[in-house]
Write a structure and sequence with these properties.
Oligomer: single chain
Radius of gyration: 21 Å
Strand content: 25-35%
Shape: globular
Structural class: alpha+beta
Number of helices: 3
Strand order of the largest sheet: 1-2-3-4
């Protein structure tokens, strides 16, 4: 039985080493690290979105979309919530839409 345990641990170690090597080679990109390539900072994108929707940001994230890398900022204006997308290179608003009932952000049609 000790032999099977040892072989199992060896197989797990080999698989883990392969996965780590693949990730280190660039096969898996971390979105958080990608923000270093953005030409405008997150704070500037939030300011642009707040001014555009005339409100206060409640959430912001950097994400890869069909338009390329964008900041997706959720802005609360009065009783309404807006999803504002800001271009990460130019700092301009790409789109803005009122966010209806947003119980779970993972199911937005626009994301």
């Amino acid at each position: 039985m000790y032999r099977y345990t040892k072989l199992s641990l060896l197989a797990i170690a080999i698989a883990t080493t392969g996965a780590v090597a693949y990730a280190a080679k660039g096969g898996i990109e971390n979105d958080a690290l990608a923000i270093t390539k953005a030409k405008i900072p997150l704070t500037q994108a939030v300011t642009v979105a707040e001014q555009h929707a005339n409100g206060k940001a409640s959430r912001a994230e950097y994400e890869n979309s069909k338009q390329g890398w964008v900041y997706d900022v959720e802005v609360v204006s009065g009783a309404k919530v807006f999803d504002v997308r800001v271009d990460a290179d130019k700092g301009t608003v790409i789109s803005s839409a009122e966010d209806k009932a947003d119980h779970d952000d993972d199911h937005d049609k626009q994301d």
